[in-house]
Design a protein that fits this description.
By secondary structure, this protein is α+β, with helices and mostly antiparallel strands. It is 19% helix and 27% strand. The strands form 5 sheets. A 4-stranded mixed beta sheet has the order 4-1-6-5, with helices on one face. A 4-stranded mixed beta sheet has the order 13-11-15-14, with helices on both faces. Helix 5 crosses helix 6. Belongs to the Nudix hydrolase family. NudC subfamily.
């Protein structure tokens, strides 16, 4: 078998802040650091202001039709704090160089000079943010999404209130604590184990995706199931293939709304007919490494070329996996 590793970290796995758990319960230190802290303000649509070091290309500005990989550098535009202490619902993201970063829900403040056109979501900017911005934005979106859906106790329906600087919620009736949810999902690049330009990889398209958009296979881990068992089950359920030699590659958060994508690669026999699952997989096929390299050169799903097939953008761990396999 030809093995491989990721040639770089998945973009949403990067971070440059210290997640200091003791600080989450140190109210005095939180208050002392509040005047110099910075806020990551995220609106209800998951957007925050972004500063571009290089101008994004025109495709960035047209929403879902824009490119996920615009080739420029970007930084978050954080906001200074106000008041004497963190407000209820603020989430402590971490510290860097003595500066604490907090996440809050909000919207453009025109009086403070905010330009709504600068606000962008994580899907559009995650691949081009620096490590500080990528880690802050990913964590902010994940934590705030959880708070939005955790207003009531799962045991008795009582109101829940945030604590530990936003890292748990406690039940009003019984003080029961709940913590941010993360739903693990596997994503697996299935290949034939070969080498050279004729080696093959399995690509598939979901029915809701437009024509020519393909990726590798993924699925959620079920209760009581190991990650490797999930890989075996999901690949067989979705395309009828039986995989072997399952190897871990890497992981990244995917906070839409609260997933953790755990990446693997595995080997299957390309001569066994594929059986796409009705309603889940519209098409599946084996592509050569040479053809994948051509598709990667065309850009991503947003490309307007007449390429035979298009692959996900760099914000997705799928892109990291495919690029790493194609580079062998």
């Amino acid at each position: 078998m030809t093995g491989f590793e990721l040639i770089g970290p998945p973009v949403l796995s990067r971070s440059a802040v210290l997640r200091d758990e003791p600080l989450r319960t140190d109210t005095a230190r939180q208050v002392a650091g509040w005047p110099s802290a910075q806020l990551v303000v995220v609106d209800a649509e998951g957007r925050t202001p972004v500063v571009w070091d290089d101008e994004p290309d025109a495709g960035f500005l047209v929403g879902d039709a824009g490119s996920w990989d615009v080739g420029g550098g970007a930084r978050l535009r954080t906001r200074p704090t106000t008041g004497d202490a963190p407000p209820p619902g603020a989430v402590l993201l971490g510290e860097r160089d003595g500066v604490a970063y907090w996440a809050v829900r909000g919207k453009p403040d025109l009086a403070a000079g905010d330009d709504p056109a600068e606000w962008a979501d994580l899907r559009m900017t995650g691949a081009v943010l620096d490590a500080l911005g990528a880690g802050l934005f990913t964590t902010a979106v994940a934590a705030l999404n959880w708070h939005d859906s955790a207003g009531f106790c799962s045991r008795d329906g009582s109101p829940m209130h945030p604590g530990n600087a936003g890292w748990h919620r406690h039940c009003e009736a019984a003080a029961h604590e709940e913590y941010p949810r993360t739903d693990p999902a596997v994503i697996c690049l299935v290949h034939d184990g070969g080498s050279g330009p004729d080696a093959r990889v399995l690509l598939a398209r979901q029915p809701v995706w437009p024509q020519r958009r393909y990726s590798v296979l993924a699925g959620f881990v079920e209760a009581g199931e190991s990650l490797e068992a999930c890989v075996l089950r999901e690949i067989h359920e979705e395309v009828g293939a039986t995989v072997r030699d399952i190897r871990y590659l890497g992981s990244q958060s995917w906070p839409f709304p609260r997933s953790l994508m755990v990446g693997f690669h595995a080997v299957a026999d390309p001569d066994v007919p594929l059986v796409p699952a009705d309603g889940e997989i519209a098409e599946a096929f084996w592509a050569t490494r040479a053809d994948v390299r051509v598709a990667l050169g065309e850009g991503d799903w947003a490309a307007t070329t007449e390429a035979e097939f298009l692959l996900p953008g760099k914000v997705s761990i799928a892109r990291s996996m495919i690029e790493s396999w194609a580079a062998q």
